[in-house]
Each structure stands twice: as structure tokens, then as C-alpha cells.
Amino acid sequence: MKTGMLLRRIFTGWLCAICTNVFSQSPNIILIIGDDISRDDIGIYGRNPFIHTPNIDEINKDGGVRFDHFFVTSSSCSPSRSSLITGRYPHNTGAAELHTPLPASQVFFPELLKKNGYFTALLGKWHEGSNTSRAYDTLITGVALNGDGGEDQWIPMLQNRPKDKPFFFWLASFDAHRPWGADTSFPHAVENIQVPATLVDSISTRKDLASYYSEIERLDYFVGKLVNELKAQHIYDNTVIIFIGDNGRPFPGDKTRLYDRGTNTPFVMRVPWIKPQKQTMDCLVSAIDVAPTLLELAHVETGASSIQGHSLLNLLHSGKDEFRNYIFTEHNWHDYQAYERAIRTRDYLFIQNKLFRLSNQGPLDAVTSPSFRDLLNAKSGQKLTALQDDIFIAPRSSEELYDIRKDPLQSHNLIHDLHYSKIAVQLRQVLQQWEKETSDDFPANLTPDWYHRISGDSLSAKGVRGIMPGSHSNAIRNNHKGVF
């Protein structure tokens, strides 16, 4: 009897080892991108008790890893996604500004998966440019086919995919991007709202935030349906799942800004055959690190790669909470003329603003929001706090320095504080080193404002494009990874 039980245990262990090895050789990969969602607005991060995302949370709880300091390269939709699909900084992609297509010369990580036997599909939002279509076997884009939130095709695609290939899905929801959808399946009470310190606490702002909450919870609902279908097909434990946000929430003071509330987004990852030493990682991770990680998981060789990011696989295996020393982010044109660069460490954020004479109010969809109107009305009555008034300040400081541990909201600029002068010098030097190594440059003829910065009305320059950052230095051909 004991011998039989021992043999069964040996056989079971052997079978599990074989299955794990087979799975890890050709895993399915699903990348879910939440649109305009800040890190603090996903339940598992524990920052907002009024937003409930049980299905995304479960990915973390069920053997996944939550990264608390994951940063996008730009708090702007298409530049952020262009970095994600190439593993490169915005000025190195040739598409550093909103709505600029990626050049054909760029390499897209899904096309490498496709060339190595993967069935690849993009469902939902697609604005990285027509050249990226070659990376996918199937593209289903637009609201008409994908539904109000962009998730209607997830289950049909999973059911109808070729069953003889591993698959990669780029699932780009429209949730939670403005304008808010007509679907009211996930209503949220205005009483149960956590109003950020950057906004005024008013009924219309609360309604605005309630719509945002609703779209996040709708996205979470579809994540749950997706996971259930994976389990029903018995492929859940052979599927890598990643959930991320492309930039911060679409409100004044968040989206497009280089503060954490604009660039620090959710990143939850589950690799079934890797049992993480920790379920929460505190190290610095950049969005350009996603592409090399997924390619390594799929055992796809990149050769003389154009990828500037670094794979996270060793980090996942070791559990050591050490990775990057620095995060670099960019703010280029997004409805309004802009040129900012930032360097983020575990303790400090340093920002340089070449266009400091201009206000930094956020993108058009934030400017035309009820939340912005409430801020504007409160400003006329001189009822704004310094943090709320920040979006209207012009001229601004050309440099900003924040002590993250003491000032998590980045509300007290320390650039002129003598106690922090050495830190400012050090971070300025490292930022300049990164700019030099990656061929970043500041064009004289940047793309101008297309809209009025307060009213949001179209200007005569709408449609005019300037010179892309990095163009003069031929940054598109520079594959240097930059200081790490």
C-alpha cells in the first residue's frame, strides 16, 4: 500500500514537471491594457476603497505578482503604447507625440512572436499606426465591433482561435477613456467616491469620477469572464496574463503629467509555472521592460535587438526586490505643445521643463471635463489649494525636485532648497547622460497647440506638425539602452 502511494506521488510529480516544462516552452500570452487608469484605482493596490476590481485582484492573489513602482515612458496614449510594443523610449520610436504612427523600420514584439509560430490578435483600441498591422494575424478595432468598453470580442476570439498554435492577445480596452460610454451596467454612487487632492469636491466632479469608476469595474468584469473561459478551456495554467495601464487617469493634473499620478500605472503579472517569492514587488520597472520579458518567456531570440528594456524574468525567479536604479519619462505633444523630461529613483523625482512659460493643464479631454470646469470656477473665487491650482500656473519652474517618501503627492518643489542641492545636481547629470546615450534632443520647431488651453476650442494651428523630438540626432536608429 505504501509502495503504491509512493509510486503514485512520484508519477504525479514527474507528470507535473513534464507539463510545466511543456507549458513554459510555448505559453499563451494575454496582455490587457486598461486605458487611462492610475495605479491607485485598482483594488489590489489598496489605495481607493470605493473601486472594486476582484478579478484583476485575483490574478495577483492566484500566484501573480503586483508591481508597485511600474512606470510608463509617457503619460500619453499612443507614445506609451508605442514604447510598449517596441520596448523603446518614445523619442527612439519615431512616434513620440500623440497620434503619430510608428515607422515601418521599427520592430514590434508581437511580430516576433508571430514569426515564431504564435497566433497574434489585437482587439479594441489601435492607434500605433498601420505599420503595426503586420504584427497581427487578426485585428478587430473600433467600438462597433468591440462594444462600448472594447471587450466584446475577447471571449469569441478565445473560443475561435486556431487550436494548434500558442496565442498572443493584445487586449486594448476603451475603458476608462473619455468620453464615458453609454453602458450603465456598472453604476457607481456619487457618495462612494474618493476625490483626489488635485480636484475640488463637488457634485459634478463626483459624477465625473463615478463614471470613471464604473468603466474600471466594467473592465474588471470582462477580465473575470476571460479568466473563466481560460479555465473552461483548461489553458489557464498555460497562459501568461498581464494587466497594465497606459497612463494615469484622464483628469486634470494626472494624464500627460510626469508626476507619479500620471506615469505610475498598475502592473499585475501571472506566470503560472513561476511561483514568485513575493506577491508584491517594490522595485522600479519601466514599460520598455515588458517586451523583452514576454519574448524571453516565449523563448524567442531577439539577436542584435533594438529593444532598450530589460527582461524581468530573473527578477521573478529570484524574488530579489532590486532592478532599475532609474526610471526615465517624457512629456511630448499631446493636444498641446510640450517638452518635459523626468528621472525617477526610489526616493526622488526630478523634472526638467523646456517650455516652462506654458501652463500644464493636461490633455484636451481633461480640459473639457466637468472636473476642469469645477476647478476653473473655484479658481475664479480664489478657493483652490496650491495642488489644485498647479494646472493653471504659468510660468512654471523650469526644474522640479520632489522627495517622494516625504511628499508622495509631489506638491512641494525642493529645487531651490539647499539641503537637496547635491541630489538635484546628481539627478540632472544622470538625466543628461541618458539624453546623450539615447540621442534625445529638443527641436526648435515643436508641434504647436491645437486647442486653447482653457476653453478647449480648436486653434488655427490644428493639424500642423512640427519636428519630432530626437529627429535631429537620428534617435530612431539608436539602440543604446541608456543608463540603468
List keywords for this structure.
484 residues; alpha/beta; Alkaline Phosphatase, subunit A; Arylsulfatase, C-terminal domain; eight-stranded mixed beta sheet; four-stranded antiparallel beta sheet; globular; arylsulfatase activity; Sulfatase; Arylsulfatase A; Alkaline_phosphatase_core_sf
What is the gist of this entry?
InterPro entries: Alkaline_phosphatase_core_sf (IPR017850), Sulfatase (IPR050738), Sulfatase_CS (IPR024607), Sulfatase_N (IPR000917). The chain is built from 15 helices and 12 strands.
Report the biggest beta sheet as strand number plus sense, adding barrel if it closes. 8 strands, mixed
Shape: globular
Continuous helix count: 15
- The sequence of SSEs as H and E is HEHEHHHEEHHEHEHEEHHEEEHHHEH
Helix proportion range? 25-40%
Strand content: 5-15%
The CATH C-level class name of the largest domain: Alpha Beta
CATH architecture of the largest domain: 3-Layer(aba) Sandwich
Keywords: Calcium, Hydrolase, Metal-binding
InterPro entries: Alkaline_phosphatase_core_sf (IPR017850), Sulfatase (IPR050738), Sulfatase_CS (IPR024607), Sulfatase_N (IPR000917)
Family: Belongs to the sulfatase family.
Domain Sulfatase N-terminal: 27-132, 153-300
